[in-house]
Specification:
Radius of gyration: 21 Å
Distance between the termini: 39 Å
Largest sheet: none
Helix content: over 70%
Length: about 90
C-alpha cells in the first residue's frame, strides 16, 4: 500500500496501520452503498446471490497473488535482518 522510501526503509508501523484503517473504511462504505443499491432497486435475490458468488470467485482468484506478496514481505524482512547483522559484523571487524 505504501511505496518504499528512497532510503530503502519500510514505512513506519503507524503509517501502515492508518492506511489499513482507511482501506477498511472504504471497503465498509462500498458494502453499505452496494446494500443500499440492492435494497432500493428491483433486483431479484437470485441475481444478488449470483453477483456475490462471482465476487467471491474473483477474490479467490487473487489468493495466489496475495500469498506471494505475503511471502515476499517475509523474505524481504529476513534479508533486511541478515543485511543489518552482516553490516554490524563488518563494522565490528574493522
Amino acid at each position: 500500500m505504501t511505496s518504499i522510501s528512497p532510503d530503502g526503509q519500510p514505512p513506519q508501523r503507524e503509517l501502515r496501520v492508518t492506511e489499513w484503517k482507511w482501506v477498511l473504511v472504504a471497503f465498509a462504505v462500498l458494502i453499505v452503498c452496494a446494500a443500499v443499491l440492492v435494497l432500493t432497486s428491483s433486483m431479484a435475490w437470485p441475481t444478488v446471490a449470483f453477483a456475490v458468488v462471482i465476487l467471491l470467485v474473483l477474490v479467490g482468484a487473487t489468493i495466489p497473488t496475495l500469498g506471494a506478496g505475503l511471502l515476499r514481505g517475509g523474505e524481504e524482512k529476513r534479508a533486511r535482518v541478515s543485511a543489518l547483522r552482516q553490516e554490524g559484523h563488518d563494522r565490528a571487524s574493522r
